[in-house]
Design goal:
Layout lengths: L1 E9 L5 H4 L6 E3 L2 E7 L5 E8 L2 E6 L2 E7 H6 L8 H12 L10 E12 L9 E3 L6 E5 L2 E8 L3 E7 H9 L7 E9 H5 L10 H4 L2 H17 L1 E2 L10 H11 L1 H10 L1 H17 L4 H19 L1
Antiparallel strand pairs: 1-6, 1-7, 2-3, 3-4, 4-5, 5-6, 7-12, 8-13, 9-10, 10-11, 11-12
């Protein structure tokens, strides 16, 4: 389930090369470190890579970021189970001469991939906690949608298309990826803290399971477009749906007629709840739950 992470470690014992601020590359912890300069020709940081992981050393602070799953298995369109996560972090730890497990986790992402189509997944998203979805584009191609918050980014997108566009890898199935990327404030500064503070927490089975539950909870919170029988609706109900589901008109109503917006939004959400559950949506949720449980139990 894990993908993009941002890990920070304060290094107690820096290599001698860093202390002398060399302008030439040097080897340290199984990596080749390259200096980066400011406009005055002064070294500001050193950078290196471990597979797809980007490493940055600024003073005594080491930052490791990018996809843990791609580091381990060279892709993120397959399941990434708890046992594989344990193995991946053990493998990463062997590269360093310090305790990686005590490093601070600043950000992490959890995600699953299911086999389905765009029309049955993110194209049906209406909003998440009053936020409208932002389309994900590659040129003129719309391949996903996401909700961007201060402490989170929720994504749903066509993984088959993205993989082909980025790495020219052709996948035989139509894959949709659902992902929650969250910083430590989202994970920890809340009534029921998940408690992801260090790398050791990433391999805590209970916390891994809670993150899986959080991913499903986020999916359930997203409001989706239901199947509507307009024949059974009153004209005022159809007008309400048209107004509140249109981003421009709902924003205009909220900005210039806030009292009316609050009342109409309440009626809009009440109306949505009266529609029959979409069997197709139930199948999508079931697939997401199945992948979460698979990652937990393997």
């Amino acid at each position: 389930m894990y993908d993009t992470t941002k890990i920070v470690k304060i290094i107690d014992k820096l290599p001698e090369e860093v202390n002398t601020r060399p302008v030439e590359p040097f080897q340290w912890n199984n990596c080749l470190w390259l200096p980066r300069f400011n406009k005055y020709g002064e070294v500001t940081i050193y950078e290196s890579y471990l597979g797809n992981l980007k490493l940055r050393l600024r003073g005594s602070e080491l930052t490791i970021c990018n996809s843990l799953q791609k580091f381990y298995m060279q892709n993120n369109y397959e399941a990434f189970t708890f046992s594989q996560v344990q193995d991946a972090i053990t493998k990463l730890d062997t590269y360093f001469d310090f305790d990686l497990y005590s490093a601070e986790v600043k950000k992490t992402a959890v995600a699953v991939v299911i086999s389905d189509s765009e029309d049955n997944s993110f194209k049906n998203w209406i909003e998440y906690k009053s936020n409208k979805p932002i389309l994900m584009r590659n040129g003129t191609k719309i391949y996903g949608a996401h909700f961007k918050g201060t402490n989170y980014n929720i994504k749903g997108y066509n993984k088959t298309y993205q993989t082909q566009a980025e790495s020219k890898t052709t996948l035989t199935k139509n894959l949709i990826r659902f992902e929650l990327e969250a910083n430590n404030r989202y994970l920890n500064d809340r009534k029921e803290s998940i408690g992801i503070y260090t790398v050791a927490d990433l391999v805590n089975k209970n916390k891994f399971d809670v993150l899986g539950n959080e991913l499903l909870k986020v999916y359930d919170t997203i409001k989706k477009q239901p199947i509507i029988n307009f024949k059974e609706l009153q004209p005022k109900e159809i007008r309400l749906l048209a107004t509140m589901s249109n981003e421009a008109t709902s924003k205009g109503l909220k900005k210039y007629h806030q009292h009316t917006f609050k009342k109409d939004r309440k009626d809009y959400l009440k109306l949505l709840r009266t529609f029959d559950d979409n069997e197709l949506e139930k199948k999508i949720r079931s697939k997401i739950l199945e992948q979460i449980e698979y990652c937990k139990n393997n």
